[in-house]
Structures are given as structure tokens and as C-alpha cells.
Specification:
45% of the residues lie in helices and 4% in strands. The chain has 744 residues and is mainly α. The chain folds into 3 domains: 377 residues, Glycosyltransferase (Alpha/alpha barrel), CATH 1.50.10; 128 residues, no CATH class; 167 residues, Glycosyltransferase. The strands form 3 sheets. Strands 2-6-5 form a 3-stranded antiparallel β-sheet, with no helix packed on it. A two-stranded antiparallel ribbon has the order 1-7.
Length: 744
């Protein structure tokens, strides 16, 4: 397949997303060849994805979250005394740009206002000097009060506000550092928490113990409505545990006032400090995630570490790598992408809230946004899988370079996963998500990398030996992480103690890390590739997947939105394991067919995590259309015109042709797609993500798979496909493809 782009400009091995966004695409030498629209789309998308590869072989796109990130970063700058830092104004400029017409701030574009990001953004704008009587501030204030004021915010928001004197510490949930002293057999201990919660909570406990008070020249008295915090849930079980832990919270606070923790507090603080600092090595910050890094900086400063101490300086340097500074008017920025082409309306408009235009500043002024982490291992593995699917040869130098990069990223050090693993013989292995996070390899990335390493061999004998050894280590590691229920969580084994979800500071909705269908399904595909369909772990996993199917044929998606994501991956796992003809696969296929949109695509709003009526409903996106297509084609891989008539397969063929036509018609001139809607999930109902390459490699993989499955092409580009199929391709249509000497 001829896909050689011109040489790339030099790129650093750990780029910023801003650098990626601003890099001009390399130009290929072009020639006109006779291709169908589907073939041309695959060629163009492949070339585009290769142009986005960095010189050392990896891919990494921006990972976008909501404005809580910018607000908390500005809070940190203020805490550190950097009140004249230009990033403060830049961050506030970005916050203004994300305000809804309704007045508040949402946790995803098109979503309703949420109290926690709204209160934090309003607070930062007040600190930045925005007049309280300004129109945008009045709208924000009114929106926040309608939502219940500060009392309606989540626990972490209240703790941050307490640090700045805007909420009483007595009304914030207690996070006593003595948690770290609780033995592992105790029902509540830090190793029963999810890895990300653990990394957030341990330094947060130091903050709680010190209970600092940072002076600020403003207050938020107008946001305290006096209303009680909302009660979590209505079931008898929820009410019981809510009351139980509320009593425990009161006991902890009373015990502190009476000095009952005097004998343990110093020991607990030192243990929390040591736990935190021990996990800074081989890491892009504590846990390599924004909230844990911020908490680590605050905790270390409160423990007496100066700002220039290597521990603190390292965390601050890692935070700076998450920054992106761009003009708001830059058409490549998420702000421009989100607002471009959208009409203004009073919120909600057609079920979606609309971002209001920023009242200030002039177009072109710089704005700061912050990523929650970076995703190079994830992006690289998914990019390579897409390229291999579309026919780029595994011996291609760019593929080999990407494989080498992944092999170099294998984890070879001990980590927190060992605490609950149970297999003392298994070697450290696996892959993490970020550039450096050696303590926390995860099963999702490991499964995806194993899939790549199972599809491609290394040309160099030494590297091939290394590949084989890494695969064997990673397989043993992944197998050791299987839970008793047959599934896999993300970072830890048997991290599913539901009791922890009721503690007062657990309202980020991700306190535990139980088995999920999406991680389990990816793992099944990888295990089948390397170990075969009959492996006992595969059979146990399939039982978990089938048990987890919902009544309407769907599967819940923990890490992507939502039932489209879970159903796609479950269908791929069932197909890989030889269960294409089973009832579970049939029901999943029928649901996908039922929720296809009239334009031929698929879409599902993140609102589906809280509103069942949004299940499988939302504007078509390239990524979600690709997921649905991949799920359908996994169960029905032979869709060529010569197949024997079959009612379900014929329906799938028509559906897939329409979906392929939708992708071909919506492809942009550079070969990629541009999804405005977010499709990634951090914490369901709390924190969502936009992966900026999901609309690059997933559509490419789907179109390449469609070619392999014998799908009948698509309409000419630029036409809108109907919902019941698409027109025949013109086999003589001319398409532009890359070509150069020496291409494979």
C-alpha cells in the first residue's frame, strides 16, 4: 500500500498537544489513480494518520476535559503565590469562552450546567477581577444558585473551596490521614480504592490534616444558599450507608477536636508523605493524572518542602507539560471546533446547552487550557492497529518504529497492582496510558498493545526476540489480573468493594475499579489472538460478558460513551471467541441496527450515563459510527455481494453500507474527521473526555475492515447518504493518493 508522506519536521519525543495541533501536515507527492471512494478514503486517512506520527514512532493527541482542570490549576497558582503569572489571565479567558448561555459551565459540550465546575469557574473569574455586576457574572451567579449553590458541589470542590476560606472545613468531608494506617484486612483501606482514587486521596489527606487557609480578596457568600447537600440516592441501602458514613464523618471531626488523633497524626502524615514521594519516580507526576499531581504539590508544600525541591519542581514541570496555550480564534482549538457551525439559542436548545460567546477578550488573545493527562501509549497502539488493518505492511519502517517505541514502554518495575494480585511469581509487565507511570500499568492499554504485538513481527532479530519475551510476560501479567467474576478491571485485581462508594468523599463516582465489559472484551480479543479460543480464562471472561448484557441487548461502556462503546467491544470479543451465532451477539447486533440514525451514522450523548432516554441517541460522530460498524462487521465479517441470502446479514449489509457512506461523505480534505461531540469517559456522570484522535484511527479502522469484509463502496464524497443504504460506487472515479519511490 503506497502511503509515503514527505519527511516530517523534527518533533520532540514528548510533544505538547499544542505543538501537535499547530504542526503543518507533511505533503506527499501525488498522482491520480482510479480508486473507489472507499479505497480513496482509506488511503487518505492512512496517509493522514502517518503524518501525525512523531519522529520516534509514537502518536499522541490532545486529551481534553472540562473546565474543572483550568479552575483547579489557577487555584494552585494562587496557592503558590503566583498571582501575577500570565497563565492566570489566560486560564480565565478560557473559562469565559466555555460559559453556557444559561450562565453555568458544563462537564461536556452540549450538556447541562453542573455546580462544581460552575462554582470553581465563577470563583476564579472573581479572583481575576471580573466585576460581579458584569452580565456574564450575573448569569453565572443565577445559574449556580438555581442548582443549589456550593452545597450542591462535590466533595473535592468543597475541600478546595475550604482551603481558600470559601466553605467551612466543618462542612467539608473528613479525609483523615489515618486512613493509610488501616490494615489491608480492614474493609476500608487505601488498597481497596481504585488506583486513581488512591493517588488523589493520600495527598488530599495531608491537605485535610493541615486545613490551610489561603487569603483571597473576594468571597462567595452569594453562592451559599443555605440549602442542605443533596442526599445520594433513595434506596434503603443507600440511605443506610449514607447515614452510617455521615455518622463516621462526624465522629472523626469530633475526635480531632478532642485530640484523640494526637498519638497517630504525626505517624499518619509521615506515612502519607512517604507513600506519595515513593511514587514520584518513573512517573509523569503522581499517578500521571492532573488531580493527583495538584494534590501532591499542595501536600508537599504543606509538609514543608520548598517549591524548588526536586519533588515539588518535578510535579510542577509535569503539570506544565499538560498546558496548551492558543489563541481562542485559532480554528484548530477545541473552542473554535465546538462553537463553529452552532447556532445560538436559549438553553436548553433541542436538548443541548449551547456555549455562549465570550464577552471578552478580543479575538486572537491567548487562552490556557489544561489536559488531565496524556495518552501516548493508547494513541500509538490504536493507530498501529488501524494502520495494520488497512494494509500497511508490518515491515514498514514507520510501523516498526512504532512497535519499538511500544516495546520500550513496557513496565518492568514493581507497582501497586502487586498488593492485591495474589500471584507472587508473575513478573512486572504491562503498559500504562501515559509517557511515564511505572507504578500503574493498566489492563486496557496492555490488551491493546498485546493485540498489536500479535499482528506484527519485528524485522530485526534482536527486537523480535524482545517482542516475543514482552508478549509472554504481558500475557502472564494480564492473566494474573483476572477477577474471580471472570472479568478485568483497569488497574487492580478484586477492587470492587461497594462499601467504599458510600464514604462522604466518594462522590466522584469512581472509588472502586471492578470488572468492566469494555476492558474484559479487549482482553478477550488479545488472549484469543495469542492463546486461542479455548483458553480457560477466555471462557470465564465470555461468561462474564454474557452475564453483563442488558435486557435490550446492550452492554454498558465504562471508558467510552456509552452503550455504543460497550456493545461494540462485547460483540468483537464474542466474535473473536467463536460466538458469532450466539443469542448474545444476535441481540447486540439488533440493537445497533435499531439505533442507526437516518444519516447512516451512529451517535450517543454522554447524557446517557444519567438519562436512560439518551441511550444510543445523539448526533452522529465519526468515532461512534466506526464503533458500531466494527461491532456489526465482527459478527458478520462476510458482507460481499456473493453471499447467500440471509435476513439478518442483509440488514447488516445495508446498515454497514450506509455507515460507510456516512464516513466517506464526512471525511475532511486532510483525510481525517472532526467530531465535536465528546465520546470518552473518565468518571461516569462526573468527568468526561475528548480524545482528539478518536476521529482519526477508529474511522480508518472501520473503513479498512469494510474493505476486507467486501462492503459495496459508498456514494461520491460530499453527498449525504440515506438511512437505508447508499448508491453504487463509480469504479472509475479519480482519487488523490500519496505515492513516492520506495513505498511498500
Amino acid at each position: 500500500m503506497s502511503l509515503d508522506p514527505a519527511p516530517q519536521r523534527a518533533r520532540s519525543s514528548q510533544p505538547s498537544a499544542a505543538g501537535l495541533a499547530s504542526a503543518e501536515p507533511a505533503r506527499a507527492r501525488l498522482e491520480l489513480v482510479a480508486e473507489t471512494p472507499l479505497q480513496a478514503a482509506v488511503t487518505s486517512a492512512s496517509r493522514h494518520l502517518l503524518e501525525l506520527q512523531f519522529d520516534d514512532g509514537h502518536w499522541c493527541a490532545e486529551l481534553e476535559g472540562d473546565t474543572i482542570l483550568e479552575s483547579e490549576y489557577l487555584m494552585l497558582l494562587w496557592f503558590l503565590g503566583r498571582r501575577d503569572d500570565p497563565r492566570f489571565d489566560q486560564g480565565c479567558r478560557y473559562l469565559r469562552s466555555r460559559q453556557l448561555d444559561e450562565g453555568g459551565w458544563a462537564i461536556f459540550p452540549g450538556g447541562p450546567p453542573d455546580p462544581s465546575p460552575s462554582v470553581k469557574a465563577y470563583f476564579m473569574l472573581k479572583l481575576c477581577g471580573d466585576p460581579p455586576d458584569a452580565e456574564h457574572m450575573q448569569r453565572a451567579r443565577e445559574s449556580i444558585r438555581r442548582m443549589g449553590g456550593i452545597a450542591a458541589c462535590n466533595s473535592f470542590t468543597k475541600i478546595y473551596l475550604a482551603m481558600f476560606g470559601q466553605w467551612p472545613w466543618s462542612r467539608a468531608p473528613a479525609v483523615p490521614p489515618e486512613l493509610i494506617l488501616l490494615p489491608r484486612w480492614f474493609p476500608i483501606n487505601i488498597y481497596e480504592m481504585s488506583s486513581w482514587s488512591r493517588a488523589i486521596v493520600v495527598p488530599l489527606a495531608i491537605l485535610w490534616a493541615h486545613r490551610p487557609r489561603v487569603e483571597v480578596p473576594v468571597d462567595l457568600a452569594e453562592l451559599d444558599t443555605g440549602e442542605p447537600a443533596p442526599r445520594p440516592g433513595d434506596s434503603l441501602r443507600q440511605r443506610f450507608w449514607f447515614a452510617f458514613f455521615r455518622g463516621g464523618d462526624r465522629f472523626v471531626k469530633l475526635a480531632e477536636r478532642l485530640g484523640l488523633f494526637a498519638a497517630t497524626r504525626g505517624v499518619a502524615l509521615r506515612r502519607c508523605e512517604r507513600w506519595t514521594t515513593e511514587r514520584l519516580d518513573a512517573s509523569a507526576g503522581l499517578g500521571a493524572i492532573f488531580p493527583a499531581i495538584v494534590n501532591a504539590v499542595v501536600a508537599l508544600r504543606l509538609q514543608g518542602y520548598p517549591e524548588d525541591h526536586p519533588f515539588v519542581a518535578h510535579q510542577l514541570a509535569e503539570l506544565e507539560k499538560l498546558e496548551i496555550v492558543e489563541p481562542l480564534s485559532d480554528p484548530r482549538s477545541p473552542v473554535a471546533a465546538t462553537t463553529r457551525g452552532r447556532g445560538r439559542a436559549a438553553a436548553p436548545a433541542g436538548g443541548a446547552y449551547v456555549v455562549a460567546p465570550a464577552p471578552t477578550p478580543a479575538a486572537g488573545d491567548l487562552a490556557l487550557r489544561v489536559q488531565p493527562c496524556q495518552s501516548p501509549v493508547w494513541d500509538t497502539a490504536l493507530s498501529l492497529n488501524a494502520l495494520l488493518e488497512c494494509g500497511v505492511d508490518a515491515s514498514d519502517a514507520r510501523v516498526q518504529q512504532g512497535l519499538q517505541w511500544l516495546l520500550e514502554m513496557e513496565v518492568r518495575q514493581p507497582g501497586d497492582w502487586q498488593i492485591k494480585n495474589g500471584d507472587r511469581e508473575v513478573e512486572p509487565s504491562g503498559w500504562f496510558f501515559e509517557y511515564a507511570n511505572g507504578f500503574y500499568p493498566d489492563c486496557d492499554d496492555t490488551a491493546e498493545v498485546l493485540a498489536v504485538l500479535g499482528r506484527a513481527r519485528m524485522e530485526d532479530p534482536a527486537w523480535e526476540q524482545r517482542r516475543q519475551q514482552a508478549v509472554q510476560r504481558a500475557l502472564r501479567w494480564q492473566l494474573s489480573m483476572q477477577n474471580r467474576d471472570g472479568g478485568w478491571g483497569a488497574f487492580d485485581r478484586e477492587c470492587s468493594r461497594e462499601l467504599l462508594t458510600y464514604v462522604p468523599f466518594a462522590d466522584h463516582n469512581a472509588m472502586i475499579d471492578p470488572s468492566t465489559v469494555d476492558v474484559t472484551s479487549r482482553t478477550v480479543e488479545a488472549l484469543v489472538l495469542h492463546l486461542g479460543q479455548g483458553h480457560p480464562s477466555v471462557q470465564r471472561a465470555l461468561a462474564f460478558i454474557e452475564r453483563s448484557q442488558e435486557a435490550d441487548g446492550t452492554w454498558f461502556g465504562r471508558w467510552g460513551s456509552n452503550y455504543l462503546y460497550g456493545t461494540w467491544l462485547a460483540l468483537c470479543a464474542l466474535a473473536a471467541a467463536g460466538r458469532r451465532d450466539g443469542e448474545a451477539a444476535r441481540r447486540g447486533v439488533q440493537w445497533l441496527l435499531a439505533v442507526q440514525r437516518e444519516d447512516g451514522g451512529w451517535g450517543e450523548s454522554l447524557a446517557s450515563y444519567v438519562d436512560p432516554s439518551c441511550k444510543g441517541a445523539g448526533p452522529s460522530t465519526a468515532a461512534q459510527t466506526a464503533w458500531a460498524l466494527l461491532g456489526l462487521m465482527a459478527v458478520h465479517p462476510d458482507l460481499g455481494p456473493g453471499c447467500a441470502p440471509d435476513e439478518e446479514r442483509d440488514a447488516v449489509r445495508r446498515s454497514v453500507e450506509a455507515g460507510v457512506a456516512r464516513l466517506v461523505a464526512s471525511q475532511e480534505a486532510d483525510g481525517g474527521w472532526r467530531d465535536v461531540e465528546w465520546t470518552g469517559t473518565g468518571f461516569p456522570a462526573v468527568f468526561y473526555l475528548r480524545y482528539h484522535f478518536y476521529d482519526r484511527y477508529f474511522p480508518l479502522q472501520a473503513l479498512a475492515t469494510a474493505q476486507r469484509c467486501g462492503v459495496r463502496g459508498a456514494e461520491r464524497r460530499g453527498t449525504a447518504p440515506g438511512g437505508d443504504g447508499c448508491a453504487e460506487r463509480d469504479p472509475g472515479e479519480l482519487a488523490v493518493v500519496g505515492a513516492s519511490e520506495g513505498s511498500t
